[in-house]
Records
---
Amino acid sequence: MPTILLADPVGTRLMLEKTCLMRHRHTVLEARNGAEGLRLAREHHPRLILFAAALEDMDGASFCRAIRGEDGTRATSLLLVVARENDQEVRAIMEAGANDCLVFPLNRLDLDQKIGIYLSIEPRRNARFLVQAKVESASRRGFFLGTSVNLSASGMLMEAFTPFQPGDRVHIRFFLPGIPREIEAEASVIRSEAHPGVRRYGLHFERISATDADLIRSFADLAGGER
């Protein structure tokens, strides 16, 4: 079963989160602070981390950046759990690399839905190639170029100098190395993170043909894609 890491200094929240997750027989690890969470993430490579906005030794944004900054944990899904909605705090953590957010006390149906989404992650392959993006949103409009960092049948991590925003929808086109077929997908920007000299954007494919998804899946599997 997939491994899930809980990083939260509040024992009562940890207990409730663990109880909900154990119903599905997931392997659950617990950390009470950021340093312990990072150590467990490096050792066990969990598929998903549920974490608090404030850990004892670091804030949630710093924790996200640390997870995203290492090759062994970069692909891990990050689900923020907050006691109350604070737009500024949540935005900072999402921009640092979190995938999504839940408000405590946890709604079981919402938790099950989020867990299902973020544990169903396709094999991913690191690959650099040119990506053409067409954007029509409140923040940006037009055609732009980016470069892939990694790719799966469900999404892409892309570098670009263009300032996209989480929630922007983009139409992307690209060729996989060694495959003479142009792939197209409709995607949404689900996260934004700073990187030296450029920004990286997590794209989730909202619409892609079965043929193109299978090509990406085969491309990732050939390299023994990570999960």
---
Amino acid sequence: MWFRNKKTHHQQSDAELIATYKKDGDTAVVGVLYERYGHLVYSICYKYLRDEDMSKDAVLNIFEKLFDDLKKYEVTNFSSWIHSVARNNCLAVQQKEKNKIPLEHTMADVEMEQEAELEIYAHLPNLPEAIESINEQQRICIQLFYLEKKSYVEISTQTGYDLNQVKSFIQNGKRNLKNYLLNKKNESR
């Protein structure tokens, strides 16, 4: 009775399942691993992604990759290994989402940046006059920060202003320069 001694996939350990898959390529093995670990992988994915649909998609992608990964890698402790795979997959998804720029905003953003650059170039001839129009503290901080690329701390050390004053002079100076240049633009129309 040789067939009674043979374990079914559900009775095999993870290591036995992986060995069977590597030997026979039986895809049902991945299904058994999914039954055993799908909920764990989902909870890991949800912990990182905080989105039900994205987590479900991640689980499916992870188990779909198992068909190739189990043949490529030597897996001795499947539960630890799948935990690491799930975590790394989710971190990659997070990074991809973080770097993704919505397509509908991309063209508008590019056009706005181009318009802003054209605005700046259109007002460059008035910039020396604009810089002279702001008060001395603002002018010094603006020149040190933007032209000499000094940090707030370096400006504070060089001028004797405290950090809050430096920040305030730069912010107010930028606003005053912008207002001056916009007024010049409106006068020239």
---
Amino acid sequence: MYYPFLRGRQFELIALRELSQENQLQGYISSIIEPVKNSLKSLELANRVFLEHSQNNFLIVNPSVGERNGDTDFYVDFMSNLQESSFYPAFHYRGNRDYIVEKISENDLQNCLILGTNEIQSSDQAFRDVLELDAVNKVVIEDPDRNRDLKRYIQSTDIEFIRLDDLFEPEPRNSNFLQIESHRFSEEHKYYLDDNYDGFSDYTTLPSRFIEGGSSPRAVVIHLTYLNNQDQIWIRHFTSNSNDTIANVQGKFGEAAEKAVEYCRNNDLDNSAITELKQYFDEGHYPGLGMVKKISIKNHLIVVGNYLRSHN
């Protein structure tokens, strides 16, 4: 099972909604969503779509970033006030046992997921107490191989253990991607079960670091993943050429899209995300950077989902 880590920004939720409507996720992918906005409208819309298409995702109720970060009631109340919820609750663990226990008890929460870092000590009794709660059945640890004591402790329990890997390698300037060839992105989809994990997670084709807002880029890059002939996931970066100024973002998109579309057509790569990209390019339409990221996320989730489906 694949548990991609996404933020609750509009383009990320649109990607999940569209994939749910296309039946690309059900049974193989359940996203972990960290909400970052005060406005709940996008989450409410996503919830309706997920319910309609029988898709469940996890919603972090105490996000570490964004406009409502910290151990608050804001997103717990949002979930509790939904007439019907497609979301399962997720908690960041940061020595906050009392908060987690209290919110689970007050709201009768079930099927909870805990996110922790590899800096947690296996002897941390508060962490052990949280994992022993009946309402908690999944735990996610980023790069767990860096703490073998913690890894061995979790694998000795009955809880479902999911590894989170930070795979996307950002560059200080988008134009740097011009010099980077396609390269191996991930093999976790092939080996996570062999390594005694119940699931795997990543930040898709986005950086793990959360950046609020953004500015006009000097370069536009389209990041697309694909399976090679050994079932490894590789990533290729399609980058604009006219990167001296921030002017003409639409033209920069056209340059990057031309490279991406040509590569996909020459290598018989196609799915709903790539079809959308081809349509934008063929029509000379620039959809905005958010939609470019949406296409990249959709493509990656389809690539992983197709692999899991074919190897079930």
---
Amino acid sequence: MRFVKWGVLAVLGLFVFAFLHYTLPQHDIVRIVGTENRRMEIGENSWFFASPDVGTASTASRDIYFINTVYPDGGTMEYRNEDTGWGWPPYFKMNNSSLQTEAKDLISTKDKPIWVAVTHYGWRNQLFTIFPNAVALQQVEGPDATIIPWVNIVILGFALVVGFMLWRMWAQFRERMIEPAVIDVQETLDGLEERTERAGEKARGFFSRLFRRG
């Protein structure tokens, strides 16, 4: 049972980690090399795309803005630029057109690079055709610029505090309510077992005397 318990906890921990890694904002230092408006059919991978832009109809096929970038080491990354609206995750992004204009204004070449910090959430997976969603752009001095993830620090710190408080509440509840109840049940069972044994001994003694008289 111990292996089952730790296995379940490991799976739950993996799901929590994946959820936080997908949802919390991340920062990439990149050079923007182009933007495009791509018509896409949203199918089984719809979980990894935001809802249609605020004020537009919901269809399986729609135009999606993309921002094409290059990392300092030459690797490439494509970000979608979609509104999140009032849905999940709660970035309340409703300015994808303005962000696309910012991205166009920050396009640069390898000879004269403009380095940009792209704040995004989500994953890039070529097999399932999913892209991280850019939520903000900020020009930085160079590819070695340091971005402190204050939002993640605050959210994770708050989650740790809440988790610790819940753990303490559970520990106190178990100590005050569950453990005494378990002890009472155990004592009741022990008392019942003792009474059963005494009753059995009396019965054996009775039949023993009865057979001797017979």
